[in-house]
Amino acid sequence: MRYNEVSRHTGYLPGVFCAQGKEYSFIAQKKLWQRATSAGSCAAVLERTAAKIQNRRNYIMAKWVYLFSEGNANMRELLGGKGANLAEMTGLGLPVPQGFTITTEACTQYYEDGQTINDEIQAQINEYIGKMEEITGKKFGDSENPLLVSVRSGARASMPGMMDTILNLGLNETVVNVLAEKSGNPRWAWDCYRRFIQMFSDVVMEVGKKYFEELIDKMKLDRGVTQDVELSADDLKELANQFKAEYKGKIGKDFPDDPKEQLMEAIKAVFRSWDNPRANVYRRDNDIPYSWGTAVNVQSMAFGNMGDDCGTGVAFTRDPATGENGLFGEFLTNAQGEDVVAGVRTPMHISEMADKFPEAFQQFKEVCSILEKHYRDMQDMEFTVEHGKLYMLQTRNGKRTAQAALKIACDLVDEGMRTEEEAVAMIDPRNLDTLLHPQFDRASLVRATPAARALAASPGAACGQIVFSAEDAKSWHAKGKKVVLVRLETSPEDIEGMKAAQGILTVRGGMTSHAAVVARGMGTCCVSGCSEIAMDEENKKFTLAGKEYHEGDWLSIDGSTGNIYDGVIPTVDATIAGEFGRIMGWADKYRKLQVRTNADTPSDAKKARELGAEGIGLCRTEHMFFEGDRIDAFREMICADTTEEREAALEKLLPVQQSDFEKLYEAMEGNPVTIRFLDPPLHEFVPQTDEDIQKLADSQGKTVEQIHQIIDSLHEFNPMMGHRGVRLAVTYPEIAKMQTKAVIRAAINVKKAHPDWNICPEIMIPLIGDDKELKFAKKTVVETADAEIAAAGSDLKYLVGTMIEIPRAALTADAIAKDADFFCFGTNDLTQMTFGFSRDDAGKFLEAYYERKIFENDPFTKLDQNGVGKLMEMAINLGKPVNPNLHIGICGEHGGDPSSVEFCHKIGLDYVSCSPFRVPIARLAAAQAAIANK
Ligand code: ADP
Ligand code: MG
Ligand code: MG
């Protein structure tokens, strides 16, 4: 237990104690403190009563409110980022208008109590209003020196613009007249009042900004002026009255006059804004848990709107777009709050402050330097100048582009402010994505308005002419045209068309739909799940946002934001700056996890090598069967009536598959290559069009009717859980035999050509649920491989391992490990089998799950550590003791997700495998995991 000095003023003892592993802040009455000390040990007594604490809040209360002078930067969990930094700046002696912070725990409590602020919290707030009045020498509603405050949200992680702020709270008809009179500046007083009514109404009562903006516009029109600052005191007074009337009209009640009532309402509104739709979406996109809650900061106002010797601004210590070292920001005179960013007037460059406010500017530059050195990172600050005097209102580590992040991290190392490890930890791995794909020209992008927004499924920018089928994409591409492929959804046979397209837009499907997964793998921009599109694939047209689009029309899509634009927005190729290599070099130095790639083609493999992949963790062999006329041979195999016929068809595939594998080994230059045997159900390969069916019938000497019968016979009620994976190798061992031959022959050839490379193929059997399945498939593999190796007189070594992607495999991993050289978690299947819903259908209900707070994330994107993760840990703990040489990896989509990579590091995997463009992300995330868990 820790406790602070007994507060002389209040007779309360603030402190912190631990009970049942949780820290409680408390304030104990002096009486209790004295009783405790006289009983011998205060700690013992308080700890003994810890269990009863919850019911005895009248003796020991949680501390819900902190003065800025009571906190510091390390308390961001409790005080939120803004509150913790206001406290830290106060501690540093910087000019911060004083106030207090209501904790994030109070927010959580507010929701627990059914969206009300309970009496205990209200009492503490009222107590702290008193303290604030003492500190500032001003009083709420006072007729001499009235206190005006801002009420500001502030979560643990910064969520800019997501929640709400109210300024100038504490004003009413009486107070505004006092201010007008005492200051001799009625224009200012009425400007504050009209702003307050506007913000309070908008935020607290959800009235909607637009009514007020309309009234302002009308007033300006009436007065023949264009700018807010040109309105007179009387105009603003009239506006305030109009606003109040508007409020009463909409709400049916008078605008509240009592400052304390205003404050409670405003605090509630900020708590409520934690749950507003845009905040919920932002949190999901940025991995911020709902349970964190937001703090509320109540701060006395500094006024930038008192005249031309006042103003307000925002600034960064370095350029957030490029990382260039130097003050970057904007300033607006006679303004308040969001005026700078809202674009009501054009602000001036921060450097122009030097002339207008020489003293305040000098001081501000010093503050910048103090803050940057203190936080050892680029700072994003908000400040106000009141009659030439500087006030700091906020500082935080500034958001920055990926490019700027890399430059700043390297510069901070060079400037001696950060170590290499710290620099690595500073980069958000998810940001790197944007560096690896073409981007829209920034200037053109700001001028464009999106026609719609859907899921940002695969990053990058694409601009091209609309086509509606994979075949058209291919043929248009062959003619040198740039196309965007728009489809209801994509399927494996669309792959070539997808490759030919600049970008892919689908009407259906989520972040792990076929289109999304494949596009990410190829590094092609993809926007998925745009349900606003009314699609007519047959007639090659669709409607979106009231416009009909036809084949050949231009469309631009942004896979990094999910935005869809009508027409042309030019793109520029991404450049990889020198700092990128430096940071990745450091990351490689510190990470423990190996990073492999999921690659099915030599070109993917080559790309992945360039991006630093140390091997292939998953080669999906079935993807190789779609190219060119290979699919014909594969279809022959499916339609075969006898084993002999099947073998004959497979014989045709053997050389092409072998040559593919040779190219993969070549591309990987002796690094490990894991090849997964045929996995999907066979129906995915059958012909769809009449033309193709006819062609197959002709080549097989069968009737169209017979082919239809075969296709029908392959129909499955639940293909995801049907005849696929190892089950294919059990029913058709000849398929596994052919694939083994191709793998081994290719390896022997490449080994001959490169004797110095360590070629050791890793054959991976998918979808094992029982050790006997693996035994059976492995027998086929080993017999075939050993015969091939003996015949070639080679000493090639190879491994046979298995995917762990069915819960039963994890549960019986000890038995399976006896026959497996390696495990690889196929977390896409493992997730859907564990949850019992398929990733292709989850899109239909996940939105409702987010809304109802059942899920915070898509478990197919972010690994479900509590469930799926537990199965993974179980498989490791069962497998390793049986087979100490077992090496273990992951090759689901999660292999490229930073928080999932950290989990993989913690549970002791040897490698993660992800799509080529995610390799740098995984490398960085692996390094961060190693550094954080040192
Ligand atoms: P956000 O988190 O959206 O940036 P803030 O809580 O920072 O919202 O408030 C927005 C703006 O309101 C600030 O940048 C600042 O200009 C103004 N503001 C907030 N509190 C005060 C205050 N006490 N005095 C003067 N201006 C304030
Ligand atoms: Mg702010
Ligand atoms: Mg699988």
List keywords for this structure.
Glucose Oxidase, domain 1; disordered N terminus; transferase; D-amino Acid Aminotransferase, Chain A, domain 1; metal-binding; 934 residues; binds adenosine-5'-diphosphate; binds magnesium ion; 37 helices; single chain
Q: What does this protein structure show overall?
A:
This protein has 934 residues and is of the alpha/beta class. Among the domains are: 3-53, no CATH class; 311-400, D-amino Acid Aminotransferase, Chain A, domain 1 (2-Layer Sandwich); 438-572, 3-Layer(bba) Sandwich (Glucose Oxidase, domain 1); 591-681 and 716-932, Phosphoenolpyruvate-binding domains (TIM Barrel, Alpha-Beta Barrel). It is built from 37 helices and 35 strands. Strand 18 (461-467), helix 19 (470-478) and strand 19 (483-487) form a beta-alpha-beta unit. The two termini are 28 Å apart. Residues 1-12, 29-45 and 54-59 have low confidence and may be disordered. It binds adenosine-5'-diphosphate (ADP) and magnesium ion (MG) (2 copies). One magnesium ion is lined by residues 382, 394. Its EC number is 2.7.9.1. This is Pyruvate, phosphate dikinase. Keywords: ATP-binding, Kinase, Magnesium, Metal-binding, Nucleotide-binding, Pyruvate, Transferase. Residues 579-929 form the PEP-utilising enzyme C-terminal domain.
